[in-house]
């Protein structure tokens, strides 16, 4: 019987129980010889050098140190880096791809709760739940909290900026809500947008036409302040902006002005800076909900990432294509 490949874990220890509960850990150990020591949080120790020398697979996660040419020099047998979370940009150096090492990410699995959060936020935002709940609890005299005039998701025009993994899942989930869908993404065609159930437009047109705008683009130099003062001014009165992608996509100072005036509402799971400093005005506005970057996998949802990773390891061991494969050419445009 052939010897099992050797796998080494490299991530923060707190993530392990959620990612790999006992049954998943048993399945992983049936596929690879898992190094019994603690997960690596540094590649610079003598212990790390010792285990890396025999590693065929690195199973990485949040807190994995950067895998660069110096790390590769201590891991001559390394053939795959399989990541249990989303972006690999922070820890996979281009040298990994240059060395012909297979790289995979569980970004598709991590996109699921982000899409669920986003659509839930849209339903609540379209009902103006956040500001109406405030009226109901604190100041009913300030407005008619019961009035539903102009509210509800039905018939709304929803704009999705970025046909990323998450953006596509959001589009898929919105099809049952009887809304008009717009998508802006320079990397897809009009036919691809149509296949996603949406109309392809540019960002300016999307801002002008949408009643809900949701961001699902990566943080790149060309997307920094993608929604700047000019584009935020294009949003129609009463629009809700939802950002579960990256805070740097939005000009925070410009957004604040529009939200303070009550012209637009916002649901922000990511901000710039992140976190916002205590007392920041966005944290106090009744028409803005700021959450602490929690849309991605947490708690029970971590198991989905672990299951995806175990399945990827199984495909790698069998010599099959990996479902979460990342190519070197993808690095410049992924989150």
TrEMBL record:
InterPro entries: D-2-hydroxyacid_DH (IPR050857), D-isomer_2_OHA_DH_cat_dom (IPR006139), D-isomer_DH_NAD-bd (IPR006140), NAD(P)-bd_dom_sf (IPR036291). Transmembrane segments: none annotated. This is 2-hydroxyacid dehydrogenase. It comes from the Bacteria. It comes from Lentzea aerocolonigenes. Residues 135-295 form the D-isomer specific 2-hydroxyacid dehydrogenase NAD-binding domain. Pfam families: 2-Hacid_dh, 2-Hacid_dh_C. Keywords: NAD, Oxidoreductase. Residues 44-325 form the D-isomer specific 2-hydroxyacid dehydrogenase catalytic domain. SUPFAM superfamilies: Formate/glycerate dehydrogenase catalytic domain-like, NAD(P)-binding Rossmann-fold domains. One of its GO terms (molecular function) is oxidoreductase activity, acting on the CH-OH group of donors, NAD or NADP as acceptor. Belongs to the D-isomer specific 2-hydroxyacid dehydrogenase family.
């Amino acid at each position: 019987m052939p010897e099992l490949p050797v796998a080494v874990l490299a991530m923060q220890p707190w993530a392990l129980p959620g990612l790999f509960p006992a049954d998943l850990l048993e399945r992983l150990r049936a596929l690879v010889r898992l190094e019994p020591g603690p997960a690596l949080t540094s590649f610079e120790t003598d212990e790390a050098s010792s285990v890396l020398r025999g590693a065929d697979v690195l199973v990485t996660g949040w807190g994995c140190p950067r895998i660069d040419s110096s790390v590769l020099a201590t891991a001559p047998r390394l053939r795959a880096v399989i990541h249990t979370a989303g972006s690999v940009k922070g820890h996979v150096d281009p040298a990994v791809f240059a060395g012909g090492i297979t790289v995979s990410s569980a970004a598709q699995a991590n996109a699921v709760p982000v899409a669920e959060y986003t659509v839930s936020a849209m339903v609540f935002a379209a009902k103006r739940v956040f500001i109406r709940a405030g009226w109901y609890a604190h100041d009913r005299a300030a407005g008619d909290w019961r009035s539903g005039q102009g509210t509800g998701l039905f018939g709304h025009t929803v704009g999705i900026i970025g046909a990323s993994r998450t953006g596509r899942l959001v589009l898929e989930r919105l099809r049952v809500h009887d809304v008009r869908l717009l998508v802006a993404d320079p990397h897809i065609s009009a036919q691809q947008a149509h296949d996603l159930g949406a109309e392809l437009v540019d960002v300016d047109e999307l801002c002008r036409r949408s009643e809900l705008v949701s961001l699902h683009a990566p943080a790149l130099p060309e997307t920094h302040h993608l929604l700047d003062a000019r584009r935020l001014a294009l949003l129609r009165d009463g629009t809700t902006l939802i950002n579960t992608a990256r805070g740097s996509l939005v000009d925070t100072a410009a957004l604040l002005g529009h939200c303070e005036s009550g012209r637009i509402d916002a649901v922000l799971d990511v901000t710039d800076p992140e976190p916002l400093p205590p007392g920041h005005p966005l944290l106090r506005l009744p028409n803005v909900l700021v959450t602490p970057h929690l849309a991605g996998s947490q708690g029970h949802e971590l198991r989905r990432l672990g299951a995806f990773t175990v399945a990827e390891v199984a495909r790698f061991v069998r010599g099959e294509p990996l479902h979460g494969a990342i190519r070197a050419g993808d690095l410049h445009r992924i989150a």
